[in-house]
Predict the structure.
Amino acid sequence: MKARTVEFVDVLNPAVGLDCPRCGLWTARFGWFCRNCAYRLWPNAEAAGRAYRTWRLHDSSRMRVHQWDDELPVEETVLVVDFRQRAHELGIHVFPSSHWPIVVCAGLLFAGLAAVPLLPVVRIILAVIGVFLFVLGVGGWMLEDVRLYPAEDEGAHGEAHGVETHRE
Ligand SMILES: [Zn+2]
């Protein structure tokens, strides 16, 4: 039985797809039917499956090919980039992840509410709260940054100055 199967499929041919003998369009080689015109490529589903398995077992590099594929699967490589390290190499200062921007946004919210035509006293109070939160948020963010990365900050400044002198 196995010998007969091998007669049916050319295992040395690495092609995953083929041009359909009837419509000429590209289709999966081990699909039972042509996916474009439904031309019967194999006598039955079992023969197609057997041919596919025989062909696939012939070469370990074919293990990831599916029976319905018409081309080799694309190698999926996950690119891992340490952006913090990359930024440091380029002399770009990356802010640490922080909760302070939320405070900045709250300040902007109150400052925005102060623009609504309400009683002048209410508007002044809203504006004061908004400006206070905004300054607090920005200040807190900056201080946290300086506290977490004192050395990097100096290094970044040094590199930045270096670039400036190069341009001059
Ligand atoms: Zn066809």
